[in-house]
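Researcher: Let's continue the batch. This sequence belongs to Multidrug MFS transporter, and it's 411 residues. Same format as the previous ones, please.
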Amino acid sequence: MTNAHDFPLEPTPIHVSDEVLDDLRTRLSMTRPPLDEGNEDWSYGVPDSSLRELVAYWRDGYDWRKAEAAINAYEHYRTGVAGVPVHFMRKPGRGPRPIPLILTHGWPWTFWHWSKVIDPLADPAAFGGDAADAFDVIVPSLPGFGFPGPLTGFPDVNFWKVADLWHTLMTETLGHEKYAAGGCDIGGIVTSQLGHKYADELYGIHIGSGLPLDFFNGPRAWDFARNRPLTDDQPADVRARIVEQDHRWASHLAVHMLDGATLAHGLSDSPAGLLAWLLERWNAWSDNGGDLESVFSRDDLLTHATIFWANNSIATSMRYYANANRYPWTPAHDRTPVVQAPVGLTFVTYENPPGIHTADERVRAFETGPQAGWFNHVNVNAHDHGGHFIPWENPEAWVGDLRRTFRGRRP
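Model: Same format as before. Here are the structure tokens for Multidrug MFS transporter:
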């Protein structure tokens, strides 16, 4: 097993050129805002008043070099996997027998959304935990989401093809005979595919959702409600929750699956436009109680946005949705459950489905519902705090849940 003393690659720190940063500031200074009357409550989308302040700070106050230095406190590597350029961040484990753990982010995440859980997972004793729970933490950027740069030569990129890349990275490039995996959002289904196709070579997986692997299959995969109509006999709270979730997800799924390339022309040219598209999701999907900066500071928001901007990666990041449908998932075997590796799950009540109100109800709904049959689930948890970006919003819960998933499953 590879350890901290014989890692097979040489570190390559993250660096964004001065030319890219100068061009960004020039474009921000030339932003032409839209007319946006009567939108102070975000009901039409991101208000110009909110975006204008953030654009000004991005142009005149935000310090990417400070963020870059914090990012480079960790090891960074670049390598080719099956001809695809891959970047990943690493924190070596400190413990008697750290096991390798690959963590995969989603959209509109970056690899840096894992930054709050890396240290306690790698060095649990330094955070009041048991050194026996240590992991050697690998955090890649999804290809086309940022570093090492614009993704070319992989126009059919999608989640199950990335799972094959990650398995090659962990076993052939890094030399691990067996490893663990975790993920959320797109990263959750990448991780589930690892647990499906490569179960014998994983200690287990831990995911932040229980989406079935065929979630994006079918002619109306962009419809989050799966074509289920609103009906007059539905309880008022169920109906309201369905409408709320439509507002949260409908435009995102429909545009990314059906028209992402068209949108990308604007977002690749305008950093203000890019920021608006990302900001709406960060606001709507996080459990922020109406105060986005209680979850993401201005600097946090702009660090993630700069990673997208600097590498011109918005188009390829959105391509994952269309390609999950255009190149639909097919099973690698017919055994049940579909995901045979041991599976841990972390849910949050902020994302409860209609009719489910508490954390206990969320766990029961999963364990007794159709999604449970997909997974060899061994550790199911739900929490009242946190939204879609669980490892960022409630890192203690994520770390604790993940550790429990792998206890007793180490070599």
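Researcher: Any comment?
Model: The longest strand covers residues 339-348.
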